Amino acid sequence: MPKFSPFEETLWYATAAPPADTAPLQGTVRADVCVVGGGYTGLTTALELARAGVRTVLLEAQEIGFGGSGRNAGHCTPTFTHYSLAELSGVLGEPWAQRLIARQTQANRRVADMVARYDIDCEWQQNGYVMAAHTPTALPGLEAKMAEYNAVGADTRMLDRAEAEAMTGSPRFHGAWFHAEGGHLNPLGYARGLARAVMAEGGIVHTGSPVRGVTARGGAWAVEAGEGTVVADKVIFATGAYTVGGWPGLDRTFRIMRVFVAATEPLTPEERKSVLPHNTTIHDGRGDIYVYKYNAEGRIVASMFPMGRRGRDLAFTRRVMTDRLRWLHPQIARDPEWEYLWFGELDMQRRTVPRFYSLAPGVVAVTGLSGRGVPTGSMLGGILAEWARDVPEKDLALRLEPLAPAQFYMSFAPQMMLRYYRVRDWAKTKLAGAALPPHA
Question: FAD dependent oxidoreductase domain: from which residue to which, for each copy (predicted)?
């Protein structure tokens, strides 16, 4: 299996606005800051710096959005995945936990602002996010989530069973948590739009320029890439799960977990009246997640994690996706064709919160986004730009730490947890006397 799945097979590659005109690096270029990685983290960092008048060069090994930023499902939900907000204090320490909470929970406002300010063509919709209760016993946990997110300024509320059905079009939910600021977009279109914005603000973007190495040169850093060199005072690595070389050991700070995304043929106008009638993003509430929403053409775009035969046998995978969708929405009286199915890679690490590494004086990296791409990558640019502009380390929203490899068990722990969640979901559903989805 190749290291990365084909980029050209994604729905987003077929439908995104065209990329900006860029070229590989040639010759020697001088910059204040060199940003490595053309995904959301690198692009928003470069945008912040260029807008502030900092001479910035961004290098991308492939093309803009080639990694997770162009392959994800397009959900934009400003939350944390694994930890409650209260638990983050113990994980990150204070004041960093509260600072990061403020950044993450307001990340969609940042996305909406950039889309509007730079007129980014990316199908941006901000109609909310629904995390459903698949059993009645799931409701207290969602109520606790509502309370803690609202306490930090988020706009969320609970839906009763009737409201959840009206919002989603599914009769399977016992209630839900609704986050009004949730959104969705064409992720590759968003990445390409950010690149245009960087260039409009005076930043330089070079694609097809893989970094071969970084060495000290005359009080600065020489970044060898493509057929040239960027000499910069500071270097920021923002390559995530698609890190290949560049700095020794950086690709060992995480372990890869794969995810797949699939898109149906466009649903008919009649089907769309009752299936996701408010164009929201839906999380079905299970640990073995099924998250789905529409794209601009009216296709259902859904994502799951590979498990056993699911993800290996593509015909079976499509069958699972169809059966779950039709179980959630019995009003779909046919098997819609999944016209696109592609894979992406997540840079997983134990903490599931991005890690900010000090590699050398004037050189840093961020990895370990752990699947929180769109909002998290978008807000990280602000933190990295502050570091580059000499905001004291003690005042940043992420704590700098020495480079460290991911624990060996991260090669298998995420899949083990996914299987545990699946068994737990099954047991809770049976105990509650609720209906089980197919392939549960």
Answer: 32-387
